[in-house]
Amino acid sequence: MKSCLVVDDSSVVRKVARRFLEDMDFVVEEAEDGKEAYDKCTAKMPDSILLDWNMPIMSGLEFLKLLRAYEGGDKPRVVFCTTENDVGHIAMALKAGANEYMMKPFDREILESKFQEVGFG
Fold first, then answer.
1. In the chain, where are the structural domains located?
2. 2-117 falls under which CATH superfamily?
3. Which end of the chain is more exposed for a tag (fewer CB within 10 A), N or C?
């Protein structure tokens, strides 16, 4: 089965994303900040990551840069999920290695379409 790590400091966002992703047959893990996500990825790399931008301890962008530099960190398909809709933020995320980008709030249809675009679903 395909796996997804949901990284967001909001337990509500993690819970909603988990429900949608499990309906899409993903095995879901959760992390509430970039450091916890990085630790989980270095222990067992997921197939995909749904990643928040603004988090305490380590931001999504900092996490993504570390992940992509880590051996095997180029493999997961990363969908950035944020309230930031500035074109500059989108460009930074893509340059750092994000595969896709979506805005909060999201619904099942948006999430499914983004995961299809990165090769899942």
1. 2-117
2. Response regulator (3.40.50.2300)
3. N
